[in-house]
């Protein structure tokens, strides 16, 4: 995989403008259920709204408002597929004030009503090797309570459709600012948060970087393209795998077969992945049904 596949349009990751617009993109993702507008984002960045709109579109190909709409509707798709939440509840969680506005926006984006999408996608998710009985022995999973942790992560983006997971083992070749990290972090345990797996997305987003000790975090000089991410304590379905390429099918199997049998469902939060020379550990955040 060429490094260029993880560079957004005309702006190389690590430039001042890209870092600022990456922070803007992350702010939009973190405020999907909020009614805060682009004016709030511009104030946070110290720019005028017109500057933010222009620069964001140069980097991401969409205005901030249009980009946030796409994030909201992709999040809605995940919640429809993975959770038993009502459509009204999903609309609220994704920042829509009324059911009708949400349904119209969803149908324009996905070419199906939310109800039709939920039914069709759940049927499609069952068509994976483990659910169909020809993928070998189903993976063993454990439900665990994971403590709160911190990670120092950068965000990788990918516009092309395809399989983004192979890049994780060589993530330091694609991320700028890694050379500024202390050796103990570069050589320590890495974690990746996969925001789109297993559903398709117009923009693949992966947060990746080393886990850090809470006592150590305040003394770290954080490169401009990185941020300190708090991972909350939560219940997770954990699976040990042999390769990164197994992740999409295994996540589908957990969502469709394993979790419902235990009265659980995926929360819709990003899938967490850790790996080393011995194998891959996948953590899927879950909730009680």
Task: Give structural notes.
The chain is built from 10 helices and 9 strands. With 289 residues, the chain is α+β, with helices and mostly antiparallel strands. β8 and β9 form a beta hairpin. α2 packs across α3.
Layout of helices and strands:
Elements: H1 16-30, H2 38-45, H3 49-60, H4 64-82, H5 87-93, H6 99-110, H7 114-125, H8 129-132, E1 141-146, E2 149-158, H9 183-186, E3 190-194, E4 204-212, E5 226-231, E6 234-241, H10 247-261, E7 264-266, E8 271-276, E9 279-288
Antiparallel strand pairs: 1-6, 2-4, 2-5, 3-4, 3-8, 6-9, 7-9, 8-9
Helix pairs in contact: 1-3, 1-4, 2-3, 4-7
Task: Provide keyphrases for this structure.
single chain; about 290 residues; alpha+beta; Arc Repressor Mutant, subunit A; Multidrug-efflux Transporter 1 Regulator Bmrr, Chain A; 2 domains; 9-stranded antiparallel beta sheet; 10 helices; globular; disordered N terminus
Count helical runs.
Answer: 10
Strand content: 15-25%
Shape: globular
Number of domain units? 2
Helix content: 25-40%
Main β-sheet: number of strands, strand sense, barrel status? 9 strands, antiparallel
* Subunit arrangement of the protein: single chain
Q: What's the level 1 CATH class of the largest domain?
A: Alpha Beta
Distance between the termini: 39 Å
Question: What do the pLDDT scores average to?
Answer: 86
Task: Spell out the CATH superfamily of the largest domain.
Answer: Regulatory factor, effector binding domain
**Mind telling me which CATH architecture of the largest domain this is?**
Alpha-Beta Barrel
Q: Would you tell me which CATH topology of the largest domain applies?
A: Multidrug-efflux Transporter 1 Regulator Bmrr, Chain A
Q: Radius of gyration in whole Å, from Cα?
A: 19 Å
Q: What is the H-and-E element order?
A: HHHHHHHHEEHEEEEHEEE
What class do helices, strands and sheet pairing give?
Answer: alpha+beta
Q: What is the total tally of β strands?
A: 9
**Unreliably modeled segments:** 1-11
């Amino acid at each position: 995989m060429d490094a260029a596949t993880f560079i957004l349009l005309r702006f190389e990751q690590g430039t001042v403008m890209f870092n600022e617009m990456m922070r803007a993109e992350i702010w939009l993702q973190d405020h999907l259920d909020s009614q805060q507008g682009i004016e709030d984002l511009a104030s946070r960045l110290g720019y005028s709204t017109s500057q933010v709109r222009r620069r964001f579109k140069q980097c991401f190909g969409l205005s901030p408002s249009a980009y946030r709409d796409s994030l909201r509707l992709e999040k809605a798709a995940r919640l429809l597929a993975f959770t038993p939440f009502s459509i009204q509840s999903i609309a609220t969680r994704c920042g829509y004030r009324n059911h009708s506005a949400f349904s119209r926006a969803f149908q324009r984006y996905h070419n199906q009503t939310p109800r039709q999408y939920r039914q069709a996608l759940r049927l499609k998710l069952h068509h994976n090797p483990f659910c169909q009985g020809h993928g070998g022995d189903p993976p063993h999973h454990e439900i665990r309570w994971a403590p709160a942790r911190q990670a120092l992560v950068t965000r990788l983006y990918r516009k092309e459709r395809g399989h983004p997971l192979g890049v994780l083992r060589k993530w330091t070749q694609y991320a700028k600012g890694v050379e500024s990290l202390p050796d103990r972090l570069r050589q320590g345990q890495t974690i990746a948060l996969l925001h789109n797996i297993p559903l398709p997305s117009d923009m693949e987003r992966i947060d990746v970087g080393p886990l850090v000790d809470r006592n150590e975090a305040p003394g770290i000089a954080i490169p401009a393209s990185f941020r300190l991410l708090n991972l909350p304590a939560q219940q997770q379905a954990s699976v040990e795998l042999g390769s990164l390429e197994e992740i999409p099918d295994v996540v589908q199997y957990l969502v469709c077969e394993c979790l419902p049998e235990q009265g659980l469902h995926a929360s819709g939060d990003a899938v967490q992945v850790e790996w080393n020379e011995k194998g891959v550990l996948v953590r899927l955040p879950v909730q009680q049904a």
